[in-house]
Specification:
This protein is mainly β. The chain contains no helices and 13 strands. It has strands at about 20-25, 40-45, 75-80, 80, 100, 105-110, 115-120, 130, 165, 175, 180-190, 195-205, 210. The protein has a four-stranded antiparallel β-sheet with strand order 1-11-12-13, with no helix packed on it. Strands 2-6-7 form a three-stranded antiparallel β-sheet, with no helix packed on it. A two-stranded antiparallel sheet has the order 3-4. It is globular.
């Protein structure tokens, strides 16, 4: 994991206000084969990495405060407290009793063969230090009982029925053998920064051409 800190200092994370905005990035996955995943995503971390000058005197400068919608148990410090209870150092990765849950927006999970973008909402705001059923641990059969949507609502063009949309070569609409710009828009119901999020829209720019995202055709033309 490589979090982004502010360019004018390393003691705070760079915060992105996404509603009524678009996020664009240039990517090249031409040398990223099947089985590997290049990921860029947002999580609802505290800007200062839960720095409080007491239990957590490290903060963003040292990468503390991480959380995501999978409620990971391998986080060594959660809200300034060491995750020591029932710490299992022989597990891969090592895990503790508590998990660190928060909302996650996967902007880009991709290789040269496939790509997906996925929102993972959570029922609670910010970082939740979870234990028990709140964590939704898959190993305990509680994946769908936790505070976060671990599966998320993803869009993968190939899985949605458009098998020729993204891939390596000129036979694909988006040719992953060449660089591209990936644009994600976060539209609101009233066109304001404070409005409710109504749509997450994706398109690509390649060779100077704007390419709209594929449609989900797997359910047929009569699907809602």
């Amino acid at each position: 994991r490589l979090p982004a800190v502010r360019h004018d200092g390393d003691d705070t994370y760079n915060m992105f206000k996404l509603k009524n905005r678009e996020f664009a990035m240039d990517v090249d996955v031409s040398n990223l084969p099947c089985g590997l995943n290049g990921a860029v995503y947002f999580v609802e971390m505290d800007q200062h990495g839960d720095l409080d000058g007491q239990g957590n005197a490290a903060g963003a400068k040292y990468g503390t405060g991480y959380c995501d919608a999978q409620c990971p148990h391998d986080i060594k410090f959660i809200k300034g407290e060491a995750n020591l209870l029932n710490w299992n150092s022989t597990n891969v990765p090592p895990v503790g009793h508590y998990g660190a849950c928060c909302a996650e927006m996967d902007i880009w999970e991709a290789n040269s063969r496939a790509t997906a973008y996925t929102p993972h909402p959570c029922a609670e705001l910010g970082l939740t230090k979870c234990e028990g059923i709140v964590c939704g641990d898959t190993s305990k059969g509680e994946r769908y009982k936790g505070v976060c949507d671990k599966d998320g609502c993803d869009f993968n063009s190939h899985r949605m029925g458009e098998t020729s949309f993204f891939g390596s070569g000129t036979d694909f609409t988006v040719d992953s053998s060449k660089p591209m710009t990936v644009v994600t828009q976060f539209l609101t119901s009233d066109g304001s920064d404070s409005g409710d999020l109504s749509e997450i829209k994706r398109f690509y720019v390649q060779d100077g051409k704007v390419i709209e995202n594929s449609e989900a055709s797997i359910l047929g033309p009569s699907a809602g």
